[in-house]
UniProtKB/TrEMBL annotation:
Superkingdom: Eukaryota
One GO BP annotation of this record: DNA damage response
Protein name according to UniProt: Serine/threonine-protein phosphatase 4 regulatory subunit 3
Residue span(s) of domain Serine/threonine-protein phosphatase 4 regulatory subunit 3-like central: 144-649
Record keywords: Coiled coil
Residue ranges, compositional bias (Acidic residues): 763-778
Entry coiled-coil feature ranges: 644-671
């Protein structure tokens, strides 16, 4: 369908009383067999799928608002709205709804919700179809009018009738005329009545009345009426603020008069809701729901109209990045873009996606890179807010731009480095901007929100980029403030413990704490990249210099960094810590803290407790070997005694293993000596092999005679020789080259080698030892299965 009259957006009201956009399509009213009635159908303009199928029920209350909206409820908590592109389309569907329900299309609501109490007394209300009769709009009747408006608020039916009466007689404009008269006469009583009347009319919650009250002709008088709250001694000066203090600044002239009027109207209505009207009570919170919707749809319309005006936005970004632009003008431009992004938060996800893509195409990120580097604090603050909107919406979009920068620009200025420098150079004593930027950096380097596709891995590419181009900028203040002092030799021995360059400035300490928080995050979430960086820069040693800081929070940040590293239980890190003796500053801090039971004391003890509980053997051995004497006096916790206990247990275990190994090795050595005694003298390998064959035959014949008898012994010996020699030949071959290599091969299977080789070589001078070995074999039955195997 190409008919724009029927083009609509479908909205549903969520639990937070915010409108969710369900899509754009074309609406029609058709008889649906399944629903057995005329229904509203909305088919998506993108793929023709069904966005809405709603039967026009005779009892459903439909409301027409702002000429292009139809709103209704299908269930207790399910509100729907159709927002038409054109008024003609809205009127057409409204007439169809009224035709089905048998109502007058001139009305803006088709049904009245009736309370049970009203239903019971329905017969008592004569001629309910008639409008409420309003008193004449005169000064003398203001109190009567105020009482009437206040009295109808509890009844939905009477609210509707009063709204129709107010609309039909042009009553609102007459009331506002009386306001001007009362103000000229300084008639406070009349002004107080007008406050009650206007407030009550707002609580009628009718879009048609809002259209009149918030028009250019009436809105300032409405604000004027709301200044005279009877509860106040002196009236507020809201009109003075709106006309003199609040200035509308057109950074680029807006040629569309409708757009300009919408912006003015939205600002003033938002002011009425947020500033003038009191916070509604629990019973009144639904009274202004239509006002909230009015503002919401106005904002959506403003963003859409600005977004479609490409010339306007192109001019904004051109002037923003132009060096010739005056500072005051640039400040206004940045504030406009910030406000524009804030308005976009009212958009639904798919519309917000299109909005930020439009900004990206127009060059928002290169513009921010220029603006963030400027001296004007207000401009920088606004630029940071815009950047936060972009990062929160799509970190991937920002990362993609950042990674393309080195190829596209010749200078070394990168957006992410500009952000880091802004964080480092924040002039705010409380570092409010730095904290915000640190959070954005963390979002950008968080692997959890990085996409991995088949063609490329964003995580790998971006982290490689970050550690190559940006990490040195981030750590520069940390390395500068923990550098070794060149004059440390001049300091007396007692003061060597306190590093003179350790920052005492509170603001610097806060900044270093933020950097450490980011680095700790990197240790947790980046494995290879941060590990390589820490090793290359010896970063942990530099961080632990901060254990001497007088600012305990900074010492705790340094300790937390080390705790995260040890928490990974990575032996690569453990060897680095041991080699650099990096527990020394931690233990010095513990000893310097003395007997004070504070957070630093507890955090250090928890570090050692973790090492003990997780039984990290290399660190336990290092700590006990090097520091136990200094720590053994600490008895108020059992942590260090426990470490010593773990150390002793491991030492005993290793000792037992060593003894067992030595025993096995000793029993093997006796037999190896038999084998290798004359090995060096036996240079003729063939003689050795021949002697082995003969000896094996004799042994095998004896074995077979005992088992089968002498008759089959010769054949068995021949077969046995061919089967047994191949396994033995590798050992013999290697023995010709090196006796030590044979020992190495034989070690793992010591018992088997020992028993197998006893009968293979017959040394004439070792007959006694051979007999002893045979006796041992008879006494050790468990060796026999291993021989047969």
């Amino acid at each position: 369908m190409s008919d724009t009259r029927r083009r609509v957006k479908v909205y549903t009201l969520n639990e937070d009383r915010q409108w969710d956009d369900r899509g754009t399509g074309h609406v029609s009213s058709t008889f649906v067999e399944r629903l057995k009635g005329i229904s509203l159908l909305v088919r998506a303009e993108s793929d023709g799928s069904l966005l809405l199928e709603s039967k026009i029920s005779p009892n459903t209350a439909y409301q027409k608002q702002q000429d292009t909206l139809i709103v209704w409820s299908e269930a207790d908590n399910y509100d729907l709205a159709l927002s038409f592109q054109e008024k003609a389309g809205c009127d057409e569907i409204w007439e169809k709804i009224c035709q089905v329900q048998g109502k007058d299309p001139a009305l803006d609501i088709t049904q009245d919700p009736i309370d049970e109490s009203e239903e019971d007394h329905f017969e008592e209300i004569p001629e309910t179809t008639h409008l409420v009769e309003l008193p004449p709009c005169e000064l003398a009747r203001l109190e009567e009018i105020a009482d009437l408006v206040t009295s109808v608020l509890s009844s939905p039916i009477r609210r509707e009738k009063l709204a129709l009466a107010l609309m039909s007689e042009g009553y609102i404009k007459k009331l506002l005329g009386l306001f001007r008269v009362c103000e000229d006469l300084d008639n406070r009583e009349g002004l107080h009545h007008l406050y009650e009347i206007v407030r009550g009319v707002l609580f009628l919650n009718k879009a048609a009345l809002f259209e009149v009250m918030f028009s250019d002709d009436c809105i300032m008088d409405v604000v004027g009426c709301l200044e005279y709250d009877p509860a106040l001694v002196q009236p507020k000066r809201h009109r003075e603020f709106l006309t003199k203090t609040a200035k509308f600044k057109e950074v680029i002239p807006i040629t569309d008069s409708e757009l300009r009027q919408k912006i003015h109207q939205t600002y003033r209505v938002q002011y009425i809701q947020d500033i003038i009207l009191p916070t509604p009570s629990v019973f009144e919170e639904n009274f202004l729901s239509t006002l909230t919707s009015f503002i919401f749809f106005n904002k959506v319309e403003i963003v859409s109209m600005l977004q479609e005006d490409e010339k306007f936005l192109t001019e904004v970004f051109a002037q923003l990045t132009d060096e010739a632009t005056e500072e005051s003008k640039r400040r206004e431009l940045v504030n406009f873009v910030k406000e524009f992004c804030a308005f976009s938060q009212t958009l639904q996800p798919q519309n917000r996606d299109a909005f930020y893509k439009t900004l990206a195409n127009l060059g928002i990120l290169p513009a921010l890179e220029i603006v963030m580097g400027m001296d004007d604090l207000q401009v920088r603050a606004a630029a940071i807010d815009i950047f936060s909107y972009l990062v929160e919406f799509s970190p991937s979009m920002v990362r993609e731009f950042v990674m393309q920068e080195p190829q596209q620009t010749e200078d070394d200025v990168l957006l992410i480095n500009v952000v880091i420098k802004q964080m480092i150079c924040d002039s705010d004593p409380e570092l409010g901007g730095a904290v915000q930027l640190m959070g954005l950096l963390r979002t950008l380097i968080d692997p959890e929100n990085m996409l991995a596709s088949t063609n490329k891995t964003e995580k790998t590419e971006f982290l490689s980029f970050f550690y190559k181009y940006c990490m040195h900028v981030l750590t520069a203040p940390l390395l500068a403030n923990t550098a070794h002092d060149k004059n440390s030799k001049d300091h007396p021995e007692g003061s060597a413990k306190i590093n003179p360059v350790c920052p005492d400035n509170f603001q610097t300490a806060q900044l270093l704490a933020l950097i450490l928080e980011l680095l700790t995050f990197c240790v947790e979430h980046h494995t290879y990249h941060i590990k390589t960086y820490i090793m290359n820069k010896d970063l942990l040693r530099r961080v632990l210099v901060l254990m001497n800081s007088k600012h305990t929070f900074l010492a705790l940040c340094a300790l937390r960094f080390m705790r995260r590293i040890i928490g990974l239980k990575d032996e690569y890190y453990n060897r680095y810590i041991i080699k650099g003796n990096l527990f020394e500053p931690v233990i010095n801090a513990l000893l310097d803290n003395g007997t004070r039971y504070n957070l630093l004391n507890s955090a250090i003890i928890e570090l050692f407790e973790f090492i003990k509980v997780e039984d990290i053997k290399s660190l336990i051995a290092h700590i006990v070997d090097n520091f136990y004497k200094a720590l053994e006096s600490i008895e108020y916790v059992q942590t260090f005694k426990g470490l010593k206990g773990r150390y002793e247990q491991e030492k005993d275990r290793q000792s037992q293993k060593l003894n067992r190994y030595r025993r096995d090795a000793r029993s093997m050595d006796e037999d190896e000596e038999l084998w290798f005694n004359d090995d060096d003298d036996d240079e003729d390998g063939e003689a050795v092999e021949r002697r082995m064959d003969e000896d094996f035959s004799d042994s095998y014949e004896k074995f077979m005679e005992a088992k089968k008898g002498a008759a089959n012994g010769a054949n068995g010996a021949n077969n046995g020789k061919s089967a047994a020699i191949p396994p033995a030949s590798p050992a013999i071959t290697s023995s010709n080259s090196s006796s030590s290599s044979v020992k190495t091969v034989a070690l793992p299977a010591t018992p088997v080698v020992k028993t197998a080789l006893v009968g293979l070589v017959d040394y004439p001078d070792d007959e006694d030892e051979e007999e002893e070995d045979e006796e041992e074999e008879e006494q050790s039955p468990r060796k026999r299965p291993r021989l047969s195997s």
